[in-house]
Amino acid sequence: PRSCGLARRAAAAAAGVARRSAANRSAMMLDAKKFAEHAGEFTADGVSIERQLELANQVRDSIEIVHTAEYQGFLQHYFPVFQKLLSRPVTAAGDASAPAAIQPPLELPPGTAPAAAPAAAPADGAEDEAKDKEDDSADKEAQKERAATAAAAMKRARQESKLRKVLLEVLNRLPHNEFLRPYVQQLMALCLHVLEVDKEACALICLRIIFDLHKNFRPTLEDHVAPFLKFVCSLYEQAPNAAADLAKAVEKERTDLEAAAQAAAAAKGAAGTSGGASAAAGAAEGASAGNDGSGSGQQADKAKAEGAEAGAQAGGADAAAATGGAGTAATGGG
């Protein structure tokens, strides 16, 4: 009976997990009636890159909908949006750090002479020091602002790269049937564009899409063969430069590692030398203290001997005085 009860509880728990999983899948599935609204959020005014990435993940998690009768509506609403997002320039981390435009000088009205610069008042040392502190504070604030701007630009670039990768993963999982045929030319041109401008992870997904398109729609893609082969030839032509750049990068990394190892060894040697000097100084201090102690012992022994001699002399004088007194008493008695 106990084993039967455990089996029933386990079966009930498994059924609960299955129901919750089904509920989660149904909640994650896109609603075909809201394709237009959901796709429009990608290009809404003021939409953030984080929100676009969230929307793209929702589409990827609901990709099974393309195997239903809603595939045609899916392509109609989402493909133009994906094409627009993947066609825009790739965000670089250094774009936000572009120098500001130089402002033109103010023009004075005709007949107006420029105001004379005020005479500089003599500044003492305290004023100079205060001015230096203000300049240092301003420089630090400017550095912080530049660092924050660069960090924000790098974060956006990473989010942008993730978004492009998710969009390409969705396109890679589209069924190649008659519903996709009207979009084949645009999809091929889009993949060739991304292949030339994007990173390696996105380029590899584009290669898989290109190969699948040629397998299923080869007769209609003859015009795209020459651009693809031209791109491949350019890769082979740039291979020596790429190998040289790779060798330089490896050599630079090796040099940096060697320099770091030498710096660590030098720091370790300096620490050892400092410890040896401290030990030698301690030994010298100990020897000096020992010498002082031995000298003090010798002085104590000498003082003790002098005291004993003085005592002996005092004892002899007392004995002589006693003998003299005894003789005087004997004479008086006689």
From TrEMBL:
Ranges of biased composition (kind: Low complexity): 113-124, 281-291, 308-323
Compositional bias segments (type: Gly residues): 324-334
Residue spans of biased composition, Basic and acidic residues class: 128-147
Region named Disordered: 101-154, 281-334
Name listed for the protein in its UniProt record: Uncharacterized protein
Protein's organism: Prasinoderma coloniale
